[in-house]
Amino acid sequence: MASVTPLPPGAPSSPSSTSATILVVDDSPVNLRLVVRTLEGRGYRLLAAKNGRAALDIARRVRPDLILLDVMMPELDGFEVCRALKGDPNTRDAIVVFLSALGEVTDKVTGLELGASDYITKPIQPEEVIARVANHVARQQLEREVRRSRDRLERELASAGAMQRRILPTALPEGMGAAFAAYYRTSLYAGGDYYDVFALPDGQFGVIVADVSGHGAPSAIVMAMIRAAVHAFPGFACDPAEMIRYLNRHFEFLWESPMFATALSALVDPRELSVTIACAGHPPPLLLRDGRATVLGVEATMPILMMELTRVPDVRHPLQRGDRLLLYTDGVTERPDAKDDMFDLPRLISSLERSASLAPADQVQAIVADLDSFAGDREPDDDQTLLLIAIEPELGASEF
For the chain, does the N or the C end have fewer beta carbons within 10 angstroms? Predict the structure, then answer.
């Protein structure tokens, strides 16, 4: 019979089913020897305890994979031992299989309610013990492998999400008649939303917001490719519509794929007080003027990455000093609460109006607070982006 060797904190008790550690607990030496001999030679590390207190001591030091536990024992019976095992973070994951002559349904239910996984009735049959132990150990190892794979995937997704955030603007332009504030949140670790702001000659700004269909890694990859294409485009200041056409042509290889993206490209001119917008299936911006918010009209074409766009119109709107434009993705208006009600456009407009007196960054945070308060504990189902453009009340003002 193997000696007890404590494992360091956090170490797994066994790497594979053939080296699983099994603790046999029975106050009868005859039964103890019978169970141990039944399992000998099958690749398990076998330990034995003659009473409940010894079992708890061994389990806390060794953390066995599976415990074959007699119910009827002096001092601490099997039920009490099981309760203690499941109440200890160091031993709660051990599989507990009761060994007992008690055949009443209520006794079995009691054991299962305490966290036991199985029940073997005495007198034991060696073939039954071998089969049940093998099945439980194999299932445990599969569950551990699934957890390891899940943890590894979560680490990779978290790393991808952190890398993706690096390709978003680390700082937005300041001065030159306009101020900007943004909010970005993915539904998973990495997402398909993208936004960017470019300071251009003559005090103009190029702005783009895009939303790739789907969630997770595929959307994040396409989002990163869109960002690279945007930064390679030489003519942003000339024609927002040409940006939409360029992106669509650039990704012709995706036209036959299920992927698509909505996009809004804009040229903001705080000196001439105008904004020119080209829209490909994207939600139109909101215009906040004198405390009232309205939907800014656009002439939209279909989303990009689907097929040739024969015509991409743009619309030019005059602006006034003090105006604000809010660009967003549909993950904001479609954010659900616990009842599956959506935040929707009227709520976004109301939030924008209530926060009209705040500085741009504070206003964005106020809208996010309203959004989170509405959703409660429900996590977002889609990526969320807000981009606020504030035209200075006076050219060269510094209040922002």
Answer: N
